[in-house]
Amino acid sequence: MNDLILQPILFMGVLSLSMMLLMYLTRIPAAKQLETEGVVLQQLSHPSQLGGVFPSHVERVADNYNHLWEQPTLFYAVVMVIWALDHTDPMHLYSAWAYCGLRFAHSLVQVTINHVWLRFTLFIVSWAALAIMLLREVFSALSP
Questions:
Q1: How many domains does the chain have?
Q2: What domain range includes position 108?
Q3: Residue 124 C-beta-side C-alpha neighbours within 13 Å
Q4: What CATH number has the domain bearing residue 33?
């Protein structure tokens, strides 16, 4: 059962890969369009200069890709601790898969309708799933 906790990491990896591919599928055509309009992309080589240059739907995909390297890094670490300590149980598995499903939904919302309150809700609820896993491990470490 312990190795089952590693499957959500693979899911998040596939989600990150998918967002990376979508980012380039949207960004490259948008960049080519900007170049035909006379924009010199080399002058925008620093990420801080790109804000507002690409259409919103293109920037949202890139933003989501970046988001998948923020909070999920803690998820990966917590899952690895659970696995290393052989603490996998149904609650950890449900929490890990809930986290994955919520992050998937967050990604879908961000790259499509980008409804801020819905996206925020998915973010907070995904944090709750992660917090359950994290706090269970913290309390486990503190108890004799």
A1: 1
A2: 2-142
A3: 6
A4: 1.20.120.550
Distance of CA 96 to the CA centre of its chain: 13
Phi, psi of 68 (to 5 degrees): -75, -5
- CA gap 4, 83 in Å, rounded: 9
Residue 60: which of 109, 97, 101 has the closest Cα?
Answer: 109
pTM summary value: 0.91
Identify whether the C-beta of residue 126 lies closer than 8 Å to the C-beta of residue 106: yes
- Kindly list the distances between the CA atom of residue 138 and the CA atoms of 25, 95, 118, 124, 142, in Å, as whole numbers in the listed order: 41, 15, 30, 20, 6
pLDDT per position as a tens digit, 16-57: 999 999 999 999 999 899 899 988 888 777 777 777 788 889
Which of 17-25's residues contact partners 24+ apart within 8 Å by CB, and which partners?
A: 19/61, 19/64, 19/65, 19/68, 19/107, 19/111, 20/65, 22/61, 22/65, 22/111, 23/61, 23/62, 23/65
Per the document, the length of the chain is 144
